[in-house]
Amino acid sequence: MWWVSRGNPAELTIDETSGTDPVLAAPEAEWFPTVSISKPIGWGEDGKPTAAEGLVVNRFAEGLEHPRVVYTMPNGDVLVTLTRSPNSEVSDSWLTNLVAGFLFDRAGAGGASPNQLVLLRDSDADGVAEERHVLRDDLDSPSGIAWRDGELFIANHDEVLRFAYEEGANVVAGDPEKLMDLPPAGGHWMRNIILSTDGTELFIAVGSASNIGEKGMEIEAGRAAIHELNLETGVIRLFSAGLRNPNGLAWHPWTGELWTTVNERDMLGSDLVPDYMTNVPIGSHYGWPWLYFNDVVDERVEARMPDFLQEYSRTPEYALGAHTAPLGMVFTQEGARMGEGFGPGAYVARHGSWNRKPAAGYDVVFVEFDDLGNPQGKPKPVLESFLAGDGETYGRPTWVAWDQTGALLVSDDTANIIWRVVNPDAQPAEAIAATEVESLQPVRELNGDPARAFENPPEDLMMPGAF
Predict the structure, then answer these.
(1) Residues 138-159: what's their mean pLDDT?
(2) What is the pTM of this model?
(3) Is 120 exposed, middle or buried (0-12, 13-18, 19+ CB in 10 A)?
């Protein structure tokens, strides 16, 4: 037991396992995971996170029971799901369930789910919600929220529901319409959703039921994936796969592509595998459980790898550090007031590690994007680490959303607070201009073998620095 409790300490920094070219350490398969649970202790009456220079933090709302997903309506009302995982066993092993229950309790995630959808209203736009209304209290481990033209979409852990709801109302009345079933709970239970820009499709993120398919791939059907639901026809299709646990969903303002945050696999040591954010083109596959970061084979996986997976598995666009557990993500939008140093880019809530020594994440970071919409550099702190030291943490940042004033809202699920972050002296940001490029012309006939072009390459390709 003493040996098991030592775990597998990290040899790399989080910055080294972050960015567009992260260091991928040699895998060290573990029979028992490295465990380092930071116990939440709360912020006290006046405590608050440390923000980057120029930013100011205040409590937008507090006294909420385990707030997770935050969603801002067009009129400025803020909706939030108060939720925990459903009461279900995570394994067929009583010992695994016993240990999991202990870990959940220590991490502040144990207990019954509140199952509520709550409205927070800041009518005078002073940065503090003075009204609070419970819209629904009969949900089932809800997470994802979306709204358009009088229709409210909520993702429970096992289904997607649609309600009639006009913005400004203080209750969601009536029975919902079930739009689709989802694979229930399992190892990962959050189900985030996002509407297409024209409101005709709904995209749903579903995490895996296991670490690397060790329960068999049959139970993983429909999991570790993003689904697309056509709201006009009811047709459902698999949009992207091989994503162990996708969470945050956002539309990339430069290209209009869908992006997501992903929690990668465990039990390969504290330095593997980096969690990430990436684009998810239709039909894309990111390798789980057989591969990670394009073509690195996970030798532990017993299930047969699909043919040609190594040829078409994609490389994530940007690593967010090993075991940092990124959840909510938003891009800079018109009107955002974050000031100098926080231009066009993405804001990510890193919920924090449970299986890395030392602990990592527990913060909110900003990833800068270049003029063409490509991520660059290393993550920059927005809210610094929530860790308190000595195996404790003040809270755990979970989700991010913009409020009506251009401030960033951050849910803190173990401290039961929603924080508001803003640079009060900053001018509102301009909208990010979409990238305009000409599409490549399709090749309509194949003249010979393309590989032969590299057998006797032109002299200019042989010059130093050509590649």
Answers:
(1) 98
(2) 0.91
(3) buried
